[in-house]
Amino acid sequence: MSAAPNVPVPPPARRPTHRPVVDSVTTINADGSRYVLYPADVEGRFSTARRLSAYGLIAVYLLLPWVPVNGYPAVFLDVAERRFHFFGYTLAAQDAWLLFFGVSGLGFALFFLTALFGRLWCGWACPQTVFLDHVFRRIERWLEGDAPARRALKAAPMTAGKFGRRMAKHALYLLASLVITHLFLAYFVSLPELWLFMHEAPGEHWSAFLFVFIAAGLLYFNFAWFREQLCIVICPYGRLQSALSDDHTMVIGYDARRGEPRGRMQRPPVEAATRPAGAPIPESTLSLRSNAATAVTGLPADAPVKAGDCIDCNRCVQVCPTGIDIRQGLQLECIGCAACIDACDEVMIRVKRPAGLVRYDSLSGLNGGITRWVRARTILYGVLLLVGAAVATYSFSTVKPANFLVYRMSGAAYFVTRTEVRDQFMVRIVNKRTVPATFLVTAEGLPPGIRQTGFLAPVTLAPLVELVSPLVLADDRQNYHGPFKFTVKVVDAEHTFVLAREIEFMGPDERLLREEDEEHRSAGKEAEKHEDSGKH
Fold first, then answer.
1. 3-state secondary structure 153-212
2. What is the pTM of this model?
């Protein structure tokens, strides 16, 4: 029997000290305590694209309160005056029902995009990810270094340098939290008002003061400590992923067919000595020594087998912001940030292997199948999204630049005197335009002889001003023939729109009124007779 070839055995693969497992959350230790993550920084095409996208979103968030459109900020939710300005389009409180279409439209759009592209929102546009990865972690890496340096700093004893770095980091965290919160408040009070608040005593605007500092405290707690736990523990979107996606949804996944069996690369000594410097390593000389090889191939661990492309470097785990191992499959914690793609591609390029071992693909594509973009789920979500968009477009097109309401004055429904029957109404007109507007109020469908008091001439309202004024209609008692309905209309001076409300002129039953009149006449005649008899 020939002796077994003398094949060098590689050292065991490096493993993270806290290795992710698919059955539990990585950020929880075995004793239930918090395991703090130190995601490593990574460079690559997706990281660059995410960074540019995030800075663009942050710029939009910071600039919208500064950009004037028709005299108001581009987005201004003026809760105090119940006016909502969106890029020159103004809605009043009575238009709040349109928010239904905004909320439901966002929901259907999220369903549709999730069915197609998975958690694209989480990794690329969610404010939690945008601010955490591109503001707060940038501050942390700038002051404390990348993941190994931060771990070493945590393990090091407290010194003046460590104390200074920690204080500077948390001071910048607090400053960033205050800036974000103040800008958020500016969406509701405008920047000039916010500046005024900041220069006055807190007691003058105590509600705004409390809001800013409570919200800033929550942001600081979240971004300084809670971090990825918000995505894992609180946010429900990850749990909805299983219901919204399927095997053809584009996700980030690991190509196990190409990567397994994984293991560290090993070069035979003779080949290493004779191969020219810088030349790629031939596939025939790659072998692995791992338990995975034994499980997959059935060969003993000391038998050379052809390795998969994964060299088990754990770089994908080191850069993951939620601490998972993407090679264990699609998981709730994955936010689709693509950091593992850039990390794996970087390693593959260095070892002269094709990129894309970890990539954007569907589960079907990762298993060698075909990804179907058009399927029942995407058709259903797409149709719902289109129907909602059509209804929302029509609803927004019916919104007029003024609001109008007519209602009966409080108190008695109507008034009856010896000469007339009178109804009293209040007319409310809101000019939603950012320029003065003139309106003509008319009552149509009135019987002949009705007398009108109020709104006999056009009224002019300043921008975003509300007018509430009485409208009184009276009918002669002798001409009154019972209740009737009529229409109050409001027309602008340019006749670009008409608002109409139908309301009822109320009064007593005509028969009862006539009986009362007859009684009055009879009583009058009796009184005259008594007077005449008294004279004689």
1. HHHCCCCHHHHHHHHHHHHHHHHHHHHHHHHHHHHHHCHHHHHHHHCCCHHHHHHHHHHH
2. 0.78
